[in-house]
Design brief:
Radius of gyration of chain A: 25 Å
Radius of gyration of chain B: 22 Å
Shape of chain B: globular
Main location (chain A): membrane
CATH class of the largest domain in chain B: Alpha Beta
Helix content of chain B: 40-55%
Number of strands of chain B: 15
Number of domains of chain B: 2
Membrane topology (chain A): Multi-pass membrane protein
Distance between the termini of chain B: 37 Å
Keywords (chain A): Cell membrane, Membrane, Transmembrane, Transmembrane helix, Transport
Oligomer: heterodimer
Number of helices of chain B: 19
CATH topology of chain A: MetI-like fold
CATH architecture of chain A: Orthogonal Bundle
Helix content of chain A: over 70%
InterPro entries (chain A): MetI-like, MetI-like_sf, UgpAE/MalFG_permease
Number of strands of chain A: 0
Number of helices of chain A: 12
Strand order of the largest sheet of chain B: 1-3-2-4-14-7
Order of helices and strands of chain A: HHHHHHHHHHHH
CATH superfamily of chain A: MetI-like
Number of domains of chain A: 1
Shape of chain A: flat
Subcellular location (chain A): Cell membrane
Chain lengths: 305, 418
Amino acid sequence: MRRFLDRHWYAYAMVLPVVVVIAALVLYPLAQGVFFTFTDINEGNIANPVLDRAATYTGVGLTNYLNVLSGDPSFGSFWSTLVRTLVWTFGCVLGHYAIGLGLALLLNRPVRGRAAYRVLLILPWAVPAFISAFAWKYMFNAQYGIINQALRAVGLPDPVWLGQSDWALVAVVVVNVWLGVPFMMVALLGGLQAIPGDLYEAAEVDGASPWQRFRHVTLPGLRSVSGTVVLLGTIWTFNMFAVIYLITGPNPNTRILVTYAFERFFSGASRDYAIASTYGVLILSVLLVFAGVYRRALRRQGEVW
Amino acid sequence: MRRTTLVNALAAGMAAALALTACGGGGGPAGDSGEVVFWDTSGPNESPVFGAIAQECAARGGYRVRTEVVAFDQALNNYKTAAQGGQGPDVLRAEVAWVPQLAKLGYLVDLTGTEPGRDTGDFLATPLGSTRYQDKSYGVPQVTDSLALFYNRKLLADAGVEPPRTWDEVKAAAVRLGGEKTFFLNNDAYYALPFIYGAGGDLVDASAKKIVVNSPENVRALRTAKGLLDAKAATTALDPANSYHNMQAAFSAGEVAMVVNGPWSVADYLKGPAFADPANLGIAPVPGEEAGKGSAPVGGHDYVVRQGTRAKESSIRFVSCMSSTASQVRVAKELGLPPTRKSAYADPGVQANAIVSAFQPVVTAAHARPWIPEGGQLFDPLKIAYADVLAGAKDAEAALDEVAKAYQDQVVTDYRIG
């Protein structure tokens, strides 16, 4: 052991700062959050040095998890909220990817004014999310919004978009797709430009149709970029709070796990830090499982990530 | 969590968008920073007047005041977050239901022994009740209000309809007022209270520690509200996020004949084409199940001082000055907000204000709310249930049973459902 340290002390000394920083910035808050899930902590019993008040919360064991996992409506109907979160996530990511890929393919060919198109298409990304959210909220207004006015003008039924039905979820998915497409488009455009042109030439010489070229050259060439952006997009969308909360507020028809955690933490009936942390830990668990499965699937396809 | 903190910080930053700074004056009393930061939640129509009075109070009292206009719906959250860390305003304009909650959490200075705490004889009993928690005084009433029926005199007169006194009369009037154009129903929880109180219901019975939100009276009350929609005698914005805005737009444009709202909304209405002549705006007590039995919740705002302030003396003097009879008279005359001091109502200028005199009987008859710390938290679950019922997504009974359960699990955990 002694000899081991003598020989390797330098390496350990170099690693130490990173370990300390990660422990302080990542592990400690995480551990505290996990600890809160086993207590009944809320804003009434948390310690407050400013007000000279000691903490009075107590451990409650697994009660918070049992309450949440029972799917009780008073604790956010966990299972149906989880299903809605998955629908929301896959709806959004599918929209992002399909539209982003389509636009990237269009932009990857020489067209006049390509720079202008690129700027325009990237614009939704540059607008602060809350401004887009309020603009869309107004467009979805059931009485005065432009969307329903247009639908009425052509004689189509005009649903109450942001009301107490699943249309609200459709509406927020539309907004989030609009917001997220530019990122996908830029990332995939980068991927497309990294595919060597001679592959296409070779395919063309072999008599491959455009569809075959897309299917057998473009998609495999994009695989590593796609794998990363889809994983990133899934995690972001799963935890996308701003769009849903700013457009529909605490509407149970658009509630996903993270907005419910926020409701319990800040805006709901009480600042119930314990339940909010429990949701946080459950969200983290779901995402870890997803990332693990996804990585394994990619690795099976020969990706090293 | 990182994202949510960010959003909150963003909201706080935006809230402080308008800050009026006054210089001059002395340094304030000893042991006191001499600068009072005042969070005004009153909104763009009213805050200029409160801001001007604040500056005059500061000039007279020898301290400085910085008024920060914050959004009403964000203020409680931002205040709690700030106060927990020893930051935030020195004086907050708090909605009446917030006061017991903030007092219980230890965020407010106990004013019992101070001058505004002793000077209580002149205040109306119901608003004064909102400042009390466990026999101590934690605030000073700023304005009081309640909900009333606003109507478009011309539209009603043209149709030959009297202002309705019952919900059935609203239905009957719809035949002549053009069906859905008769009444705009806001699907927010606070606006369900006239139906609930008018039917003899309530949310909780604080003295008996009982949750009564799913009582048969309340089920009937929400069915009455839904009945107005079903009978095409009322319209609503079924998207809750847009509901209040659409109500204001529709009424001030003359598209609907009647709404239920509070005195703060008058400024919005008078900007609309339907009320270019302010005399066209009629105000009557809210309808009830039976004539004369309408009942609306008492609302309003109190001044509170933050625990941990570094300008305690100046803040208390500021609160005294802001709630003095002279200040209240000025607010009532310029903004039409009903005062909380009896002496202010004696002022001839206040008597002459049409809005105040129309609201005076409404405010006096207003239905008291339970002044419990959880009082302000009763609305979130009810809001969702009420919107569900009006949208036809849920039956009133099932929706209210869920509210009762949510109250018991989250809000008043030591109460029984009964």
